[in-house]
Fold this protein.
Amino acid sequence: MLTRKVSKIRSSEITSESIYLTRRKFVQQGALAGAGLSVGLHANAGLQSNDDITPEHIVTSYNNFYEFGTDKSDPAENAHQMTTDPWAVSVSGEAKKTGKFAFEDIVAGLGRQERIYRFRCVEAWSMVVPWVGISLKEILQQFEPNGNAKYVEFKTLVRPSEMPGQRGIFSSIDWPYVEGLRMDEAYHPLSIMAVGLFGKELPNQNGAPWRLIVPWKYGFKSIKSIVSIRFTKRQPRNTWSLLAPNEYGFYANVNPAVSHPRWSQANERRLPSSIFDPNRRPTLPFNGYADEVASLYSGMNLTKNF
Amino acid sequence: MITHNQFVKAIVFICLVAPLCWLGWQISLELQQPGSALGADPGEAIVHYLGEWSIRILLFAFSITPLRRLLKSRALARTRRMVGLFAFTYVVMHLLAYLFFYLEFNWSGMWVEILERPYITVGMLALACLLPMAITSTGGWQRRLGRNWRLLHRMIYAAITLALIHLWWLTKDGFEDLVVYTLWFMVLLWFRWRNVSQQLR
């Protein structure tokens, strides 16, 4: 199941030949490496027999990426405008190695693996996605965070000229989109930075060139198109909890017992759903990854820290 | 020979039925090949589509009186009952789609939703305002209620206000449409207020 073949990238997905050549090599190397060596312990953790992989055209056409518009179809329509090469990442805060880095340099030499994860949105829909990812711990450790680093904060690109959603006047989001994790969450083996899906380069609408994936948390934690990594002493403030603190928390662990003011979180619609079969199923605590991650929160009141 | 009244009524009727025809066509495409027309989550698409048209047609029904004055069209005024009943029909279909796709007709779940989710509560209240209006829309009821009929049908103010709150409450971001609907409603309120204050003078 895990050692799937790396499919070829279609020529329609690329902008120029040079990008085509470098990126293709980059992802193929990575995906192959992952398939070949590390069919890791956590690669399909928690996956169940009825977790069919969501079709690729749905994963790449049904997205929440408000930088490109608020409709689910907006990102697939508009994200091609975003330039992802070159891609600079600023690293700052409580770490030894800080500064501006090229995305390629950060991920060079790090092992990529395919991780098939459930993906649960706070809006009560879900998917199963085969990501090509890199261990977040390996990425972050390169910067040698110091003892004061208790949290890590990520920011998405701000570029209104290429992101129509950031030009809208009827938006209440204060760009950039910000998210964060506790360091032990970031260092958990399930946490990855995704650089691809379905064995291919990550499409722009899914957060190219790289995006966070923390499968036991609601999808809004998994921030896309990251340009800033900052190690902090204090808990970062994340975009949605700034906008509506009674609705979205910092932790955002998938929890069927704590209902959101707008949606019951007890169950979810697994996509694709159809007219005759909404494909509804019960939501699992920690999105089904409780065995792996529940210990991170022992002693914490998860109703209060939602 | 088609009279002017019949002609206007037919045009309005076609406009009101068109969104349903389009939806029916999309659903038929969807049945032939899932995911072909309404996306990965057709249930959500149908619920939102019917909700959008509900508020538009409600606002249209509320626009008819000022439009009649503006255009001096009695024929338009005669379509008001039909437009109102269409608005009610869209709202009911919106509710049924929600009950089917989101709750799978789980009635106890529905009560939990009504009590726990404020946007569902106000949506249901909006429907509760429209229901007596729909029931008493016939000529017979109009005669029987006399003066009270007009009073009862002032519930449209509450219904639209609640519907707008419902929409504001469930929107996470991207308020363009909502701003348009709200401004449209405020302009209509201003027309009525101006009219009343002129009569008082």
Q: What stands out?
A: The interface with chain A takes residues 27, 30-31, 34-35, 38-44, 46, 100-102, 104, 109, 112-113, 116-119, 169-170, 172-176, 178-179 of chain B (CB under 8 Å). Residues 34 and 102 of chain B are 18 Å apart (CA to CA). The two ends of chain B are 44 Å apart (CA to CA).
